[in-house]
UniProtKB/TrEMBL annotation:
Gene3D superfamilies xref list: Leucine-rich Repeat Variant
Domain EDR1/CTR1/ARMC3-like peptidase-like: 582-692
One Pfam family hit: Arm
Descriptive protein name: Armadillo repeat containing 3
Sequence ranges of the ARM repeats: 349-377
Keywords from the UniProt entry: Repeat
High-level lineage: Eukaryota, Metazoa, Chordata, Craniata, Vertebrata
Length: 705
């Protein structure tokens, strides 16, 4: 009777969701024949679609099958792994398989003596699971790479396909890339390029593309005649579907001078470039341009490519009606510009095409084109003139409003390069560049800030340009850039302020916005000051002679006193210990009222920094809301840097303070009497800058004694 039930139950035409539950229960049978047939029936059921896989998942089939993939009976084991292989394509099944940690059991099924069907479905399951990073790590740590590489030589094409696909996913991680190199993966991968199945060839090429990013692997590829294999694929019309991927691998190889020289000597480079000129497939054209870009990172490679007249091929690619090709070609031109002969060649032909791309609706195309123009016009008045003659000024100014930071920064660079020639500078100013620059000056990108400030310096020599910037509200963000922590931004901002301070109105507005005070502070710091900060300060003072005479005690013959000048006397030097007390407090959240100290939520701020850094060690410079011990530590650090002697004392309840010794003035009428120093506590919390005499009630209160 049981045989009849089993026979009917396992009829593939009858098994549906109703009977599936019964079949799943039979996975616990003690009879091997029942187990084998149950697994076979579930395999056929799961093969019908994702909905059936979800059904089996809900019925608990995965957990029961997991116990069977290591079953002693080879048929049961084979059939169970077949179900796993087909079900693992479902996301929720994969999640459960990870939780069950099935990878170790699957890897153990890849032994040479196992059935080829087991190899096929175990590798299929691993390939499905290897899309997840955690599973990649598991397979690597459990030694899965070695058997997978061995199975690349399997006589079964499905095993080859699944194995190479799994390896392709694993080598996305650098540890696996190094490991497969040590396991000598190159020969079996090159052998797969001869497969009669395009999908296997394609996966082999994709894997080679990833692993050939490492120089050591490229050396092994060359030693195994890999370059010849790639060139043969490119020369074979029947392999046209593989040409794009073959070019991607070749592009990695061309980063090495030796590889490029070898290809040139054998005539392969000419074939490669002529192939680019003939092909009409965008992916092939794109990957060819990318290959040239990678090769052009090396100066010797650039010379070789220039000898082969690579420039004409890249210029032709700019005309292709495909945005990805245009981007890749523009990037290759940027890289080749490091070669002066190439730079000259592109200037003669490529600049008008690049200018046209500035009007593209594609922001990536726009960025790539303007970056190429920035490289072409650098230290090249001839190319700068070619840009102007190609009517590039208006689209360049418009590009300052682009969405991508790289496009804005490079547009500013090109305009600055053009401004070195007076007629072009005047032309650019007529397009209202200073009004447009007001917005890039407000950018949060240090790259954009730096280039925008540099461009202001280039155009600020003109009085009308300064007026335009002032009217557009551009001086305020420029002054704010003086406080930047980025050295290049700060230097260029100082330069721009120095240039813009050439007239009294602009200099006065800059002073009103705080530029003078900021520059004085910068110049007190040996680490932050620069040649332009000192020159900018002097230029501002030249337009505020009363303050200059008060601070510097000197007016030169070129400083002409006009009505309104006044002498307010010599400015007394500020106690730097009192510049720095207030600075520390400002950096740590400002002064706190005593009765509101408990509302100052510094603990949450510190926890957020620790969470961001994934570390309990917090750099003091990242703290923006600090309590007593943060402020005292920062004051000690700064005091040590500027030569003020002070101590750092830890108290209780998160209290800490700094103690300094100061000498009081001599008593009136007793000149020259040197009194012993008194010890003070520096208030950094409640009244920053106030010194509390040690031993006083106020001192005890500050220390919370």
């Amino acid at each position: 009777m049981s045989q009849i039930v089993i026979k009917n139950l396992f009829d593939p035409l009858l098994i549906e969701s109703k009977t599936a539950a019964t079949v799943v229960l039979m996975l616990s049978s003690p009879e091997n024949e029942v187990l084998a047939k149950a697994c076979d029936a579930l395999y056929k059921f799961a093969s019908k679609g994702d909905e059936n896989k979800v059904t089996l998942l809900g019925l608990g089939a995965v957990e029961r099958l997991y116990k069977l993939i290591s079953h002693e009976d080879p048929i049961v084991r084979r059939n169970a792994i077949m179900v796993f292989g087909i079900m693992a394509s479902n996301h929720d099944v994969k999640k459960l398989l990870r939780e069950l940690d099935v990878t170790s059991s699957l890897i153990s099924q890849l032994a040479p003596e196992e059935d080829v069907v087991i190899h096929e479905f175990a590798t299929l399951c691993l390939a499905h699971m290897a899309v997840e990073y955690t599973t990649k790590v598991q397979i690597f740590e459990q030694g899965g790479l070695e058997p997978l590489i061995r199975l690349l030589g399997s006589p079964d094409p499905d095993v080859k396909k699944n194995s190479v696909e799994c390896i392709y996913l694993l080598v996305q991680d650098f540890q696996s890339r190094a490991a497969v190199r040590a396991l000598n993966i190159i020969p079996p991968l090159l052998e797969l390029l001869k497969s009669e199945y395009p999908v296997i060839q394609l996966l082999a090429l994709k894997t080679l593309e990833v692993i050939s990013k490492d120089r050591e692997t490229r050396i092994m590829l060359g030693e195994n005649k890999g370059l010849d294999c790639l060139l043969r694929i490119l020369e074979t019309n029947e392999f046209s579907d593989l040409h794009a991927e073959a070019l991607a691998v070749l592009g990695n190889c061309l980063e090495d001078v030796h590889a490029l020289q070898l290809i040139q000597q054998t005539g392969g480079l000419k074939k490669l470039l002529s192939f680019i000129g003939v092909s009409t497939v965008p992916d092939i054209q794109k990957n060819a341009a990318k290959a040239i870009t990678k090769a052009a990172y090396d100066s010797e490679n650039r010379k070789i490519l220039n000898e082969e007249e690579v420039e004409k091929y890249l210029i032709n690619l700019l005309e292709i009606d495909n945005d990805e090709v245009k981007v890749a070609a523009s990037q290759a031109i940027s890289a080749m510009c490091e070669n002066l002969a190439s730079k000259h060649a592109f200037g003669l032909q490529g600049i008008p095409q690049l200018v046209q791309l500035l009007s593209s609706d594609n922001e990536e195309v726009k960025e790539a084109a303007v970056t190429a123009l920035a490289n072409l016009t650098a230290a090249s008045p001839r190319n700068a003139r070619a840009v102007a003659e190609a009517e590039g000024i208006k689209p360049l100014v418009n590009t300052l409003n682009a969405q991508r930071d790289g496009a804005i920064a490079n547009a500013a660079t090109v305009l600055t390069n053009l401004a070195m020639q007076e007629p072009f500078r005047i032309n650019i100013q007529s397009h209202g560049i200073m009004s447009v620059l007001a917005e890039p000056l407000r950018s949060t990108s240090s790259q954009v800030q730096s280039k925008a400030a540099f461009t202001v310096a280039a155009f600020g020599c003109d009085a009308d340009a300064r007026t335009e910037l002032r009217d557009a509200g551009g001086l305020r963000p420029l002054v704010e850039l003086l406080c930047s922590k980025n050295e290049e931004v700060r230097r260029n901002a100082c330069w721009a302020v120095m240039v813009c301070a050439s007239d009294e109105l602009t200099a006065g507005e800059l002073c009103r916005l705080g530029a003078l005070d900021i520059l004085e502070e910068i110049n007190l710091s040996t680490g932050r000051k620069n040649n332009f900060s000192e020159a900018a300060l002097e230029k501002l003072l030249d337009n505020n002679l009363s303050r200059k005479y008060s601070q510097m005690g000197y007016l030169s013959s070129s400083n002409i006193i006009t009505d309104g000048f006044y002498d307010c006397g010599q400015v007394k030097a500020i106690d730097p210990g009192i510049h720095w007390n207030r600075l520390v407090a400002d950096k740590m959240g400002g002064p706190i009222e005593r009765d509101k100290l408990h509302d100052f939520s510094w603990e949450l701020h510190i926890s957020e920094i620790e969470f961001e850094l994934k570390c309990n060690v917090v750099p003091i410079g990242k703290v923006k809301k600090g309590t007593f011990y943060h402020r005292a530590l920062l004051f000690k650090v700064i005091a040590d840097r500027i030569g003020i002697g002070c101590s750092l004392v830890r108290g209780k309840y998160n209290r800490a303070w700094n103690e300094v010794k100061l000498v009081d003035d001599s008593p009136q009428g007793i000149a020259g009497l040197l009194l012993p120093p008194h010890e003070y506590i520096v208030d950094l919390m409640f009244a920053p800058g106030f010194l509390i005499k040690q031993g006083s009630a106020e001192a005890d209160q500050y220390k919370n004694i």
